[in-house]
């Protein structure tokens, strides 16, 4: 059987499983999620052994540290995965929820009911925890899922897939509700992207190259985000101590991810008080600064920023810094160079906080908190299946509700259209 | 200036207008909608004169009656248009609404706020009332819109566009918030479909050919429906008098539209009581029946149905009829041949009604009412901008909410990610 036929067969099995899953009752779905969390902890050693193979191979290949970091199923990542599954298990079941109901003048009662999307495709790189997060959310929302992870995580993914399949079987669900593409052949991705009859939505997760490849080749709708050029604007009315801590957290807590800060905008009135100690704190963490002339006047060791720096997603310990005349200039800068991912304002002034929240059209806009919170788990959605920076269907982290849609329902007593 | 540059310039103007419109306050938007409704009635004769040109041209070209019917801006259509505008004006403004807010264990307050989609493109055929319905909904939701109607409605569309522009100007909105492509050159459509930097979503309305053309060529997301193969299932526990009236309404009240019934499914237990008088009523309205063998046993003049009939969207006075063994068989038939548009069950049995509502995954599922209600105006959304039969972003009639999305917002007190 060629790779094309293999993918079509996989799609057909997924479609049939989706049909079953749409009818699955909430208790059984909850049991599946809780049992999977338990099983992951029970099988910790088995997972660690397989994960170690991927880590070793990555290190042997000389992958950059940030990439190796993403592969690692550390205790913390395992705990986040299982916490995520339990949190998803505990969420109210979205399927069958009536999200609204009203009566028309002719007596027709009209409402909306949540239903699953059908078959969800996920194509991802690196992080093997996506396998579990994505499967859990898709099942909770009554979908079937086809997962295609990166070749560098193949041992971890196969192991996690086996655990998921064992759990599905035990629960009495069709095993085809979660399928992992076992081959690392890139042709498999192209074939998956052609299955618009079998896959209702494709969600790519990974680098910009992968996402563009999926967006350009997929025949089904795609939920995607290209990059996170996240900004923090430190307002003239900011609490400067808090600002220093939040900026440090946003830049260095995990620099290799999409919600890390890439550009810092500082109001000119507090620049001389804020920037020198901030720069020293960044220096202590090994962060290279690239600044505008006003920044360089205050921070002599700062590298001059070029035009490219303002739209750069470094994913590394590098930060662009700009002094601005006003919040309006900060918002203009964000509109021009940003990626609509995550922006924060740090201020004690309520009017500017509310204006920033209203006017900045990014998937998450924060007041006085780190950009690193743009994450489904952190925002309380349970594990997330990705972050959308385009506005259709979902904008921002996508949790269990974003894996459903609503249909209209209507109860009549013989109403006719006149 | 070539057509490509013209469309790009139009897109840039729309993008700038969308930026303004996102900040428009609800009172001014309401004034715009109400004044536009008044202006349409004031300009009734002007509209009638321009519409007459399109009708005459269509009749001279020998277009089928159903197509000419769709062009006509009758008093009833004008009334529906202006009622729609006023209903949309009276709806609560979706922009800025907080659709939910919750607090995380670390004290971060997280919520979702509705924002406009940006620039909406509409490509449509025939019905010139779409120009007004679409513009009204787009403005209410804070978007800018680019409209491209069919060449056969060009006089009506230009006239309605002029009225809209007058109204925008009077209200103090950018005139580029509603732009109508003035040329009938088909190249303009292709150029519009390339403007993924300027148009956030494209909504085609019209025949299957147009919709496929848009779906295949658009670089931006597309909200679409291909066809309406709508079913009514008359259950064994149906009120047969009501059933006859509902079925008649669903087939003949306006046969040329997507929510008209195309296939009638009848439970075998009531087939002999129901079908002969039903067939007589259809005969009285000039409806041709194409039936399964069991139907033909009861209705001798019925034409034999072929396999193609079960998936046909006739848009005409033709109906496919099938006798089924059970509701399960009816649902199987719908799943196999339907288009996920609109299905109804007619029954007095609550258990089967609820099961049908749960199990049939169409954009509108009705109990004891005509399929003709699948329409934004009829379901209470105000005028609609289209009906989506794919599940992403919107499923079913799309009103003002479907022209928005939500962003996440978060209020903190210096929270850091650990």
Question: Explain this structure to me?
Answer:
The structure is a homodimer of 418-residue chains. With 418 residues, the first copy, chain A, is an alpha/beta fold. Helices cover 44% and strands 20% of the residues of chain A. Chain A folds into two domains: 3-223 and 398-411, Aldehyde Dehydrogenase, Chain A, domain 1; 230-379, Aldehyde Dehydrogenase, Chain A, domain 2 (3-Layer(aba) Sandwich). The first copy, chain A, has helices at residues 3-21, 26-42, 44-60, 65-71, 75-90, 129-140, 154-171, 187-193, 208-217, 240-252, 268-284, 293-298, 327-337, 350-359, 376-379, and strands spanning 98-103, 109-116, 119-124, 144-148, 178-180, 201-205, 230-234, 261-267, 288-291, 303-304, 318-324, 342-346, 364-369, 387-388, 396-397, 404-415. In chain A, helix 3 (44-60) packs antiparallel against helix 4. Chain A is globular, with a radius of gyration of 23 Å.
What is the domain total for the residues of chain A? 2
Shape of chain A: globular
What is the CATH domain class of the largest domain in chain A?
Answer: Alpha Beta
The major pleated sheet of chain A works out as: 7 strands, parallel
Topology:
Two copies of one chain form a homodimer.
Chain A: H1 3-21, H2 26-42, H3 44-60, H4 65-71, H5 75-90, E1 98-103, E2 109-116, E3 119-124, H6 129-140, E4 144-148, H7 154-171, E5 178-180, H8 187-193, E6 201-205, H9 208-217, E7 230-234, H10 240-252, E8 261-267, H11 268-284, E9 288-291, H12 293-298, E10 303-304, E11 318-324, H13 327-337, E12 342-346, H14 350-359, E13 364-369, H15 376-379, E14 387-388, E15 396-397, E16 404-415
